Amino acid sequence: MRLQAIEPMRAKPVDQLPKGRPGDYLYEPKWDGFRCIGLINEDRGVHLQSRRGARFNESFPEVLWALYEQLPAGTIVDGEIVRWAPDGRLDFDALQRRNTAGRRAVELARSEPCHYVVFDVLRACGRDVTGLPLTARRRILQKLFLPVPPASVLALSMQTDDPVEALAWFKSLHVAGIEGLVIKPANSRYEPSTLGWYKLKYRATTLALVGGVTGSFARPAELILGRYDDGGWLRVVGRTTRLDAAVAGQLARLLIPAGHGHPWPERLPPGWVGSQYGQREPLLYLRVEPVVVVEVAVDVATEHHRWRHAARFLRPRPDLTPADVPLNLDLDR
């Protein structure tokens, strides 16, 4: 088996469960981690590949050894590397710390071990199974996992064909950092790089302050969101998706350009507000007085005490004051 980059199958976002007959779809949790293809050669050489084709071998030696010891040669699996925090939630910040190499990676593998949650199989014992329906691949995967011990860092992802049970997961698992659901046609083949699956993200409605905007004061394009921390410091916590013209006009009448003393820098470092992958330039934006409260919908993915994905703007809340906004990333209203 040649070692070459595999582009994993992907999921397109939806706002509700797709309609269908019983058994048309299989439902799985949407794990908040690093997508990873695990390859075990016929000679038992193991390779861990990220979603973009980068090598993970040095960063996650515990996953490497588990694949070597517990899955057969000639096998390729697809899954997500995750890190569970002591409080039982998925911890993406800790997972990012693990993306290192050398002695540091070995030390972290002992002190902050990760798990590899496997949800699909592309090759089993030298046989290409990508052309089989998902239901058949799942049976093969379950058989491959029979000898895997319960305490292993390898874990078989939860899956159900019951939409009622899936919605119960959707409404409850977000407290553990599960982002939502991945919905897969039961008869679908595994087609690398295609958008053949669906993802339904859990979003919570909450409040934030507007601390800045991209675009202009007359036509704000996106809102830069802020929250106060426990020490009374206004922190950047995220940004919104692009505003439509009507919403931008409504907000423009509420925004007050900031004077001296605004706590944020004139340019925000890349990565602070969900910059695109690989972007290294600071974000140019306009600072505003942090007095406008807005209602937004956010998912559960966080990073460095910020919402990792763009929030959806819902409406301004002129009836509220900054004191009504929760602290930190608390979602309580």
UniProtKB/TrEMBL annotation:
<dbReference type="GO" id="GO:0016874">
    <property type="term" value="F:ligase activity"/>
</dbReference>
<dbReference type="InterPro" id="IPR050191">
    <property type="entry name" value="ATP-dep_DNA_ligase"/>
</dbReference>
<protein>
    <submittedName>
        <fullName>ATP-dependent DNA ligase</fullName>
    </submittedName>
</protein>
<dbReference type="Pfam" id="PF01068">
    <property type="entry name" value="DNA_ligase_A_M"/>
</dbReference>
<comment type="similarity">
    <text>Belongs to the ATP-dependent DNA ligase family.</text>
</comment>
<dbReference type="InterPro" id="IPR012340">
    <property type="entry name" value="NA-bd_OB-fold"/>
</dbReference>
<keyword id="KW-0436">Ligase</keyword>
<dbReference type="InterPro" id="IPR012310">
    <property type="entry name" value="DNA_ligase_ATP-dep_cent"/>
</dbReference>
<feature type="domain" description="ATP-dependent DNA ligase family profile">
    <location>
        <begin position="116"/>
        <end position="201"/>
    </location>
</feature>
